[in-house]
Amino acid sequence: MHTLSADRPATRLATRLSFLVAGFGIACWAPLVPFAKERLAVDDGILGLLLLCLGIGSVAAMLLTGALSTRYGSKPIILIGGIGLAVILPWLVVASTPAALGLVLFGFGAALGSIDVAMNIHAVEVERAAHRPLMSGFHALFSIGGFAGSSLMTLLLSIHLGPLASTLIASALMLAAMIAAWPLLLRSAQAQDGPLFVLPHGIVLLLALLAAVTFLVEGAVLDWGALLIVGAGLVPDTQGGVGYMLFSIAMTAGRLGGDAVVARVGDRATLIVGSLLAIAGFVVLLTAPIAAIAMAGFVLIGLGASNLVPVLFRRAGSQRAMPAGLAVAAITTAGYAGVLVGPAGVGFVARIASLPMAFAMLGALLCLVTLTAGIVTSGDRSSGRSR
Question: Which of 132, 143, 285, 364 has the fewest CB atoms within 10 Å, i.e. is most exposed?
């Protein structure tokens, strides 16, 4: 019904702005965490509970957004989520009690969860209308937004502008982006009559599992990668973060070039080669005798994992087992659960075995992507090419 309006540069720009705002918004919060801890004078345990409020808000909104997008389309939810991030961000630095901050974090997480699901549903529709892969490029904008958000907030705080003034500047930028996207978003992407909730089933369950595994890998590299190479004596404490930095750069670069790769080789080959490349990265990382080789392992993991999630979202949009909006919500929620629960699971395995063993298990889990690539793309006529 809206294929013609979906396949135009303005609509693709609006989708990119949505991904950019989502990555930018959540990244602005990270440099503010130490300020919140100092302002409220709470210990690490209370801070952890407060941060959990963000995750709970996100998951709750993700579950609801799939249903609402199916009924009303993704545009209003993208706008509510993006504008919500901009409006709520300054309140994170003025909340004066732990209870108040927990409530604000819940709202911030809900805004993030809403735009996260809705923008992916919108991206599925835009990509389908374009008849060529676009999802990797959209997800690259989320990564770029994250880099821009953390960099801008760190810069503003480092010149002693103050947390409130810094967040107001960031909020103004996000509002400007959402206002620019407003008239360009599809009015009714994926809107359809039908049930507001369908229990994930069929291929969607497999897609959700693979999304959880892939996001788990990303979260584990973020939370434990530095400890792995420092503990192995490969780098000093002060250089532990270099591995994740290289991982992030490789993932962003992989996504920027991912659409061209998928257009050439198809979804199935992208899943197989990407997962094998990431697995090889884990092997290199765990057997590296020197820091330079370990860093190459981080790069391989980033490159390999970069286009797995975009392909999974594309498959969620093209499957017929359940409404596309609900399927996208299901794999988004599963992926976020992997980010939340995964690092704790890595810590548990590290305690009973070792951290290298936990990372070896991550590599083994990625084998699921390799082994099920044929099932995930079984609806394709050719070797995984998505059209």
Answer: 364
